[in-house]
Write a structure and sequence with these properties.
Length: about 400
C-alpha cells in the first residue's frame, strides 16, 4: 500500500501559531504592549512552519493523516477554501508569487499523482502539494516501496514491479471512469513508464520531470550511463554500491554521501530543503533502475507524455535531457531556467505553473493502437515569479 505525504492543515497551522502568540502576548503584557511587532510576528510564523516540518518528518504517528480508499495519505482542501497563511508562513522561494489561473471546468481530471525519484519520498512534494491545492486540484503524493515512510527493506526490492507496486495498486483501485495525471521525478520516470504500460486507461497524461523517460528495452540506469560509466563498470568499481545481503552477493542498492547529494541534486535549492532531504532520503534500490522496460504502442504509446527540462541540473544534465526527448519524443517540452534536479525545491512556482498549463491541455483525438504521434514538439520557456525574484535579487 502506498503512503503519501500530508502537509499540516491550515486549521492546525493557525492553531499552532495562535497558541504561541498567546504565550508570547502573555509574556509581553507586563510591558503593557498588546500588539506584536512585525519582527515578532514574523518569528511566530517561522516557528509555526518549523513545527509543521517536524510533524512531516515524524513517522511515529504524531503527524495528522487522512487515509483514502487507495491507502494513500493526502491533504484535501475544497476548491472554495481560502488560505489563512501570511507571507511569513511560506518558504522564501514562493512568498512573492501570484496564484496561477486555472479553469477547473475544462479539466479531464483534477487529480495529480506525484511520484518521487530515487532516494526521495512523498515528503519532497510538500511545496507542490500546497500550490496545486490552492489552484483547486487534488494532488496525491505516494511513497514507492522502501521509500519515505514505507517500512519495506530497500535490499528486498528485486524488480521494478516490486518498487512500483504502491502506484499500480493506487491506479487499480480508482473508480472505473476516473483518470489521473502522473508526474514522475528523476528515476520515478521509470515507475511512470511502467504504469503507462500496465494501466494506460487510468492515466490522462504523464509528465516526466527531469526524469528517466526510457524507450522500449532500455534500462533507467542507461540514462545516466554517460555520466556514471557503463552498467558493467559501475557495478564493478562504484563506491556508492550497498551490499545488503552480504559482500558475496550482488549489490542491492546505492547511496550518495551528503556532499555528493548537495552538489548533484540541490545546487540551486534553499538550504532548509537540502537539510530536509539530508535527514529524509533513503538508500536507492538498485534492481529497478537496472531492469529493462517492455513498452508497447498499444499501451504506453496511447497516453500523451510531456517532459519538463531543468537547465541547471547537475544530476541529469541538460544535454542528457535533450537526448532523451530527441530519442523518445514527447507531446510537449517545457523548460525551467535556473532549476536544479529538484525544481519542487528550487523553482516551485515555475514547476507549479507548468503543471497547471499541462493539466489544461486538451487531449487530442484518442490515438489508435500503433498510430504514430505526429504532433510537433512545443518548447515553452517558463517565465515565472521565481525568475523575476531571482533577477531582482
Amino acid at each position: 500500500m502506498g503512503n503519501a505525504f500530508r502537509c499540516m492543515s491550515r486549521k492546525e497551522h493557525r492553531g499552532a501559531a495562535v497558541s504561541r502568540s498567546k504565550r508570547m502576548g502573555s509574556a509581553r503584557s507586563g510591558r503593557g504592549a498588546g500588539k506584536l511587532t512585525p519582527a515578532e510576528e514574523e518569528l511566530l510564523h517561522r516557528q509555526a512552519l518549523a513545527m509543521a516540518i517536524h510533524q512531516h518528518l515524524d513517522a511515529g504517528g504524531s503527524m495528522s493523516r487522512r487515509i483514502d480508499a487507495g491507502g494513500s495519505m493526502s491533504r484535501r482542501i475544497g476548491p472554495g477554501s481560502t488560505s489563512s497563511r501570511r507571507r511569513g508562513d511560506l518558504p522564501d522561494s514562493v512568498t512573492n508569487a501570484k496564484a496561477a489561473q486555472i479553469v477547473l471546468e475544462n479539466l479531464e481530471t483534477k487529480k495529480i499523482v506525484l511520484v518521487h525519484g530515487e532516494g526521495f519520498g512523498a515528503w519532497c512534494w510538500y511545496k507542490t502539494i500546497s500550490l496545486l491545492e490552492e489552484a483547486g486540484l487534488e494532488p496525491v503524493a505516494l511513497d514507492l516501496t522502501g521509500s519515505g515512510i514505507d517500512n519495506a527493506d530497500t535490499n528486498s526490492i528485486a524488480t521494478l514491479a516490486d518498487y512500483s507496486k504502491p502506484l499500480i495498486d493506487y491506479l487499480n483501485k480508482l473508480p472505473e471512469n476516473e483518470k489521473v495525471i502522473l508526474v514522475g521525478h528523476s528515476c520515478g520516470g521509470a515507475s511512470v513508464s511502467y504504469a503507462l504500460e500496465q494501466c494506460p486507461k487510468k492515466i490522462s497524461k504523464a509528465i516526466f520531470l527531469t526524469a528517466t523517460m526510457v524507450k522500449d528495452g532500455q534500462r533507467p540506469f542507461d540514462v545516466f550511463s554517460e555520466e556514471l560509466a557503463s552498467a558493467d563498470v559501475f557495478l564493478q568499481e562504484s563506491q556508492l554500491l550497498l551490499y545488503g545481503n552480504g559482500k558475496d552477493k550482488p549489490p542491492t542498492g546505492l547511496m550518495f554521501d551528503k556532499q555528493q547529494i548537495k552538489g548533484l541534486y540541490f545546487n540551486q535549492s534553499p538550504s532548509k530543503d537540502t537539510a530536509l532531504a539530508a535527514v529524509s532520503m533513503r538508500p536507492i534500490p538498485l534492481a529497478p533502475i537496472m531492469e529493462k522496460l517492455s513498452l508497447t504502442p498499444e499501451n504506453y504509446g496511447t497516453v500523451c507524455r510531456y517532459f519538463i527540462q531543468t537547465l541547471d541540473d547537475r544530476m541529469l544534465s541538460p544535454d542528457v535531457q535533450e537526448k532523451l526527448v530527441r530519442e523518445n519524443p514527447p507531446d510537449g517540452i517545457f523548460k525551467i531556467k535556473g532549476g536544479d534536479h529538484c525544481p519542487f525545491f528550487s523553482k516551485p512556482q515555475s514547476l507549479n505553473k507548468i503543471l497547471l498549463e499541462i493539466a489544461q491541455i486538451q487531449a487530442p483525438t484518442a490515438l489508435l493502437p500503433g498510430k504514430v504521434k505526429t504532433e510537433a514538439i512545443e518548447v515553452t520557456e517558463a517565465k515565472t515569479e521565481d525568475e523575476k525574484t531571482e533577477k531582482s535579487s
